[in-house]
């Protein structure tokens, strides 16, 4: 076995069973090092919204690298691509006068928003508002703040106390949020973090009316509402750039990454409503936060070209179409006795929940045997989050692969 330590992995099992090494990708397909082709059911880790192997993005990256691969954006420094991307994101964000803070990925975006929410209240003369509330099943990346905030207990185990100022409520009840706010006291709470569709925790679309209600609870209690759109942002939710747009959430901040570049280069961005940024834009106020690669020039150039593709190919409409196709097609898998439930119907995401969680890894091997690259999600689920370019016949091919794998599992 080699030196690579895989993230989120049972390395003993990987050492025993070997690695799945992907060498090439084109559209919704990837190829392993043996030249075998797989339909990519997950678009990597929910990121390849425009599909794999876009020559255009490689060309943009190469040109930017020849001009200048990267500079930095601390102080008054910037690159043209960084400035242009910030303007572009501000123009598609659903909030007023949006400012854009660049990061290197989703976990950075979460901890940036978390620190900014708390610091905002300090600037407002309310330094007691430090507690952040997340939801059960939520995933907010793996930095210390995001790990503490998220609602997946296994991810928090074995580190001692990560961040005592984090609280968790059930994922589906606005009443639970209200009760937690009255227990803690709104004067101690900085922000509520909310994935519009719970992703890595198992793909749980929100109950009807839930998002509008928790948004209102936060507004009524002077608590910032942060939409974690690392998965749902940039079109995956269908019909709009952000789930926050589609559901009229008017969040105080949106955390993003993944679909910003479709994963062609690492990059994240926090979109910050003008009224939250305003105290930080006064002369003499410094926010001592940022990353070497905040606004990385090549990532920014690729992000711009990626957003161009989403617009040119109208992938926001494609995602809306995929929402109903997936809902219709993937739900047919529920007839298999090994399947407990299928969750879908909200954006280009779905999950096949196995009745026995022990079946997930055998299923992933069987899916590969039947030409589909899949992965585990939540507790005992299989993830479906294809490129937004996936055609109806490719959806049928993917579902047929699941069907064959499920038959063979029995
Ligand atoms: N937030 C959500 C909702 C995510 O799904 C993820 C990653 O899957 C993250 C944050 C963390 O992003 P990254 O893995 O880029 O650090």
List the helices and strands and how they pair.
Blueprint lengths: L10 H7 L4 E5 L2 E4 L4 E4 L2 H4 L8 H14 L11 H13 L6 E5 L2 H18 L7 E5 L8 H6 L3 H4 L9 E4 L4 H11 L4 E6 L15 H11 L3 E5 L14 H4 L6 E4 L11 E5 L1 H4 L19 H16 L2 H16 L8 E5 L6 E5 L5 H10 L2 E2 L2 E2 L3 E4 L7 H18 L1
Parallel strand pairs: 3-13, 5-6, 5-7, 7-8, 8-9
Antiparallel strand pairs: 1-2, 2-3, 4-10, 9-10, 11-12, 12-15, 14-15
Bound molecules: pyridoxal-5'-phosphate (PLP).
The site of pyridoxal-5'-phosphate has 15 residues, from helix 5.
Structure overview:
The protein has 410 residues and is of the alpha/beta class. It folds into two domains: 11-53 and 314-409, Aspartate Aminotransferase, domain 1 (Alpha-Beta Complex); 56-312, Aspartate Aminotransferase, domain 2, CATH 3.40.640.10. It contains 15 helices and 15 strands. The chain has helices at residues 11-17, 43-46, 55-68, 80-92, 106-123, 144-149, 153-156, 174-184, 210-220, 243-246, 274-277, 297-312, 315-330, 360-369, 392-409, and strands spanning 22-26, 29-32, 37-40, 99-103, 131-135, 166-169, 189-194, 224-228, 253-256, 268-272, 339-343, 350-354, 372-373, 376-377, 381-384. Strands 4-10-9-8-7-5-6 form a seven-stranded mixed sheet, sandwiched between helices. A four-stranded mixed sheet has the order 1-2-3-13. The chain has a four-stranded antiparallel sheet with strand order 11-12-15-14. β8, α10 and β9 (253-256) form a beta-alpha-beta unit. α13 runs parallel beside α15 (392-409). The longest helix is centred in the N-terminal third of the chain and has 18 residues, at 106-123. It is globular and about 65 Å long. The two termini are 32 Å apart. It binds pyridoxal-5'-phosphate. Pyridoxal-5'-phosphate binds next to α5. Belongs to the class-III pyridoxal-phosphate-dependent aminotransferase family. InterPro entries: Aminotrans_3, Aminotrans_3_PPA_site, Peptidase_S8_His-AS, PyrdxlP-dep_Trfase, PyrdxlP-dep_Trfase_major, PyrdxlP-dep_Trfase_small. One of its GO terms (molecular function) is pyridoxal phosphate binding. Keywords: Aminotransferase, Pyridoxal phosphate, Transferase. This is Adenosylmethionine-8-amino-7-oxononanoate aminotransferase.
